[in-house]
Automatic annotation (TrEMBL):
Lineage, highest ranks first: Bacteria, Katanobacteria
GO CC term (a single one): cytosol
Organism: candidate division WWE3 bacterium GW2011_GWC1_47_10
GO BP, sorted A to Z: rRNA 5'-end processing
NCBIfam families for this protein: RNAse_H_YqgF
Protein's recorded name: YqgF/RNase H-like domain-containing protein
A Pfam family that the UniProt record links to this protein: RuvX
Length: 104
C-alpha cells in the first residue's frame, strides 16, 4: 500500500481483509543489507499498529530485503518491457509472500 494517505490505506486494507475473510496479513518490513531496521521500518510498524485497531487477524512481518531486485529480475526473465518493469510493486508483494511461505 503505497502512495496513499494513511487513513485511506487503512480503510483499503481493512476492506480487503473483511471482504475476503483474510485470516492473516503479511507485511513487508524494510531492512538494510545487514538485516537491521531502517527509518522506513518505523513507518511500517506505526502503520501496522494503527491497522491493528481495525483488523483483528494476526499480522506478521517479512523482510523486504532484496525483494525489489528479485522482482526486477523476474520481470526481465518474463520479458517485460522497460515501461512495464517500472511498476514492480505487485511482483515485489508476491516475492514477499513467497518468502513468508518458504520460511513458514
Amino acid at each position: 500500500v503505497s502512495g496513499k494517505n494513511v487513513d485511506a490505506a487503512i480503510a483499503d486494507v481493512t476492506r480487503v481483509v473483511l471482504e475476503n475473510k483474510v485470516t492473516k496479513v503479511v507485511v513487508g518490513l524494510p531492512v538494510d543489507y545487514a538485516g537491521k531496521e531502517t527509518p522506513a521500518s518505523i513507518r511500517v510498524r506505526q502503520f501496522v499498529n494503527m491497522l491493528k485497531v481495525y483488523v483483528k487477524v494476526p499480522i506478521v512481518f517479512v523482510s523486504e530485503y532484496d525483494s525489489t531486485k528479485q522482482s526486477l529480475n523476474t520481470a526481465i526473465e518474463a520479458g517485460a518491457s522497460k515501461k512495464r518493469r517500472r511498476s514492480i510493486d505487485d511482483i515485489s508483494a508476491a516475492v514477499i509472500l513467497k518468502t513468508y511461505f518458504d520460511e513458514d
